Amino acid sequence: MKFCKRYQEYMQGQEKKLPVVGFKKLKKMLKRCSRRHSTSSSSRSSSSLPLNTCPDQCPVCDGTFFPSLLTEMSAIVGCFNQRAQKLLDLHLASGFRKYFFWFKGKSQGSHNALIQEGKDLVTYALINAVAIRKILKKYDKVHYSRQGQMFKSQVQSMHKEILQSPWLCELMAFHINLRETKVQSRKAHAFFDGCSLSFKDGKPALTCELLDSIKIDIDLTCSICLDTVFDPVSLTCGHIFCYICACSAASVSIVDGIKASDSKKKCPLCREVTPLSDIIFVLQFASSPATPLLGMKCKTECPF
Questions:
Q1: Coil, helix or strand for 239?
Q2: Distance CA 255, CA 103 (A)
Q3: What is this structure's pTM?
Q4: Where is the RING-type domain (predicted)?
Q5: Tens of pLDDT along 82-126?
Q6: Residue 4 burial (CB < 10 Å; 0-12/13-18/19+)?
Q7: How far is CA 27 from the centre of its chain?
Q8: pLDDT in tens, 52-62
Q9: Contact 242, 285 (CB under 8 A)
């Protein structure tokens, strides 16, 4: 079965109506473009371009294809981030606050329902990441160019790449936490089988083998203090730092907090201008009894 059909069947099978990649619509745009330019075969015969491609920098495709795809990607990332944040807030809540979230969201207040929601969110993120990668690959094939890859890099700088989302990293850590905890049932629920926390030369890293050969490697070493992240925060560019180190880089005190920093500050690693006030506290990575990912693993790997 072709991916386009599988993708449509998956999205149609969702209970809630979610933002999607207009796979069929975008492919039709490219098909019309290649058909339109295939009539000029005489001019193409003297060039190295295949007959079924249209020229690089095609104004018709670039004026419709990329804006349409960007709008869809923005909607997908926004929906994913919002739902992931709500799920993790519910997971970390306790007592009356947790019941309040359950009643407010009209969701089933069970451990299994929480796990299933996380699994569905990760699958949603991954299948859309594959869809976007495939449609950009198709664009480059039709245009015999690398504009699709350049667009992908541009989207990453705009924080519209779903695999770059800190909330996806949080869900990965959420999965490992549930798998490691003793409270969990023996019948482990896995979001994806290839997710693991490993240590190389004493440094932790989160590695995930995802759908369609997609691989994510997340270094859990702070690039400022060069130690394992402690009380970690993630910037909008996706880089993770210790909270104390991030405050130091933003030239603010821990008392004032990083949200008091200048909005024009740059990421200490990639030097991209990113509002440090928009940080996300990466709670699932934290070394604490409530969020045991690094705490449990560090004790196993480094018992001394």
A1: coil
A2: 35
A3: 0.76
A4: 222-271
A5: 998 888 877 766 655 555 555 555 455 566 777 778 888 888 888
A6: middle
A7: 24
A8: 445 556 666 66
A9: no
